[in-house]
Design a protein that fits this description.
Helix content is 57%, strand content 7%. The protein is mainly α and 149 residues long. The protein has a single domain, classed as D-Maltodextrin-Binding Protein, domain 2 (3-Layer(aba) Sandwich). Strand 1, helix 2 and strand 2 form a beta-alpha-beta unit.
């Protein structure tokens, strides 16, 4: 069950990759290309979802969305990159829109079944709850993460 929870967290990290405490930007968003870090191998469910969502956001935002797969160490390598990344400055409205899109995707029975067939359970939460979860995991895994490049 722990592994399933990690997979669900990784899915959320991948698709959100934003800071819940990001301030509203005064300029047009986004000002640079969007990089989505996927802490699992290419071709897996997280990668596929990230690429599908990235494609839609690339069209609607007019900026390229680059999916960067960083598998390894039970998804700690990619998660560490996200954790150490500087806040993206993503406006709150966009964070909430992304969160709503993720929730809508996870509510799709076909997608839930497909995750279930792979032994995964994806959970949806608020950006604030996810931020608190990440903070607790960072505290828990700090010594391991400090040893990674």
């Amino acid at each position: 069950m722990r592994r399933l929870r990690i997979a669900a967290v990784s899915f959320a990290i991948v698709t959100m990759a934003v800071s819940p405490r990001a301030a509203l930007s005064q300029t047009a968003y986004p000002v640079k290309n969007i990089r989505v870090i996927v802490p699992s191998p290419t071709g897996g469910p997280s990668d596929i979802v990230a690429r599908l969502i990235g494609e839609k956001y690339s069209v609607s935002l007019g900026r390229p969305v680059v999916v960067d797969n960083r598998p390894g160490a039970s998804q700690i390598v990619g998660s560490n990159m996200v954790a150490k990344a500087e806040p993206a400055g993503t406006p709150r409205a966009i964070v909430l829109k992304l969160n709503a899109e993720i929730g809508a995707a996870l509510a799709n029975p076909d997608l839930s079944k497909r995750f279930g067939d792979m032994g995964l359970v994806a959970k949806h939460s608020t950006p604030e709850a996810f931020g608190k979860f990440l903070q607790s995991e960072m505290t828990r895994w700090r010594s391991v993460l400090a040893k990674l490049p």
